[in-house]
Amino acid sequence: MPISRLVPAQTALLVVDVQTGLLNTIHNGDRTVRACRLLAQAASTLDIPVCVTEHYVKGLGSTVPGLAQDLAAATRFDKTKFSAFIPEVHEWLNEHRRPRIVVCGWEAHVCILQTVLDLAANGWQPFHATDAISSGDATAIEPAFRRMEMAGSTPTGSMSVVYELLGDATHPKFRACLALVKSNAS
Fold this sequence. Notes:
The chain is of the alpha/beta class. Helix content is 44%, strand content 20%. The chain is built from 9 helices and 6 strands, in the order βααβααβαβαβαβαα. A 6-stranded parallel sheet has the order 3-2-1-4-5-6.
């Protein structure tokens, strides 16, 4: 079986429910926000389409500050379904025709897991950025990652995503992405 690789022309980023109402409850929330920011900034630099979802905004608030700024040009959808694979996101993915989807956000065992399962079941190749995903229940993260991988998702990390998308230090946007990596380092 061929190994899926991330290349800019075939990749999209899906940022799921990184919202203010959850921040103080999320295990390593600040770390995961930094990793999500790196992915969002790199996607912008590399002209990769980005979609962001917000779950029940009335109760959970909007996307956390900083990350919200990084996602200003992203397509945004509100949802109440746990999976971010709602009809509007499905349509957005079909329009962009990017078969590989990098997924990041919160909560690993609920919204992220269900999103990844739905992406895989509907023909996309999900890549779950483990350092950019967390949960309010730290014990639920690893089982969710295992289930995602068993369903066909590829585990990766935010820096790995950036360098894989670049492919080579001679890439014209290498220095810009290197600066992003350094500025988002913990």
